[in-house]
Amino acid sequence: MEILQSIYASAKGQSWIEWVVLITGLLYVILAARESIWCWFWGIISCSFLAYATYYFYQLQLDALLQIFYVIMGFIGLYRWRYGGQQQAELRIRRMSAGEHLRLITLGIILSLAFGYFFDNYTSAAATYLDASTTMFSVIATFLVIGKRLENWLYWIVVDMVYVYLYSSREAWLFALLLFIYTIIAVFGYLEWRKRYQDIA
Questions:
Q1: Which residues are within 8 A (CB) of 114 and not within 5 positions of it... i.e. 6 or more apart?
Q2: Would you give the DSSP letter of residue 34?
């Protein structure tokens, strides 16, 4: 009950920037789960505003850099989904091998420790190692989305759950709620993409 009151109080005090992030972010994830190319348009808008909010409001410097990365990747994703298939046709959903998972997870852990150490010792950033791990694995998951890999949703489920904790620890309750909703949508996204993959396999 206390958390709900905090979310309500936080929502009342949010700036218009954070409300834009909330609405456009939801549109992005919902459309991505439906494999709609229009998800990238809303994702670009959402991440542009979120980059500003996370840097100036919550001092999560790595996360702000991540949002800028998302904006750039949004344009790449838009192109890849439209023309990334064979003979520049629409890209189709594909699966990953166990080896690919192992390499990506190992890379994510190494980069998380490296960036966490740097930001912990040389900047005033908050929650450095946790912020670094969510940032690195979000980058990895983003490339998987761009490549229409089915398992991207499994990565997002884990990353989004960690983000719920991270934003809650910074009392960014509205963003924590948003990432909780993202987690639920990611579950449905995985189920929907798996069905689509089985239909075309």
A1: 132
A2: T
Q: How far apart are CA 105 and CA 83, in angstroms?
A: 28
Looking at residue 186, its amino acid is A
- pLDDT per residue as tens digits for the range 20-58: 888 998 999 999 999 999 999 999 999 999 898 888 777
Phi and psi for 155 in degrees, rounded to 5? Answer: -65, -45
Residue in the structure block whose two tokens are 């960014």: 172
Against a cut of 0.85, is the pTM above it? no
Dihedral sign, CA of 191, 172, 58, 120?
negative
Q: Which tens digit of pLDDT belongs to each residue from 48-78?
A: 998 988 887 777 777 788 789 889 999 999 9
How many angstroms separate the Cα of 65 from the Cα of each of 55, 69, 126, 131? 9, 6, 14, 11
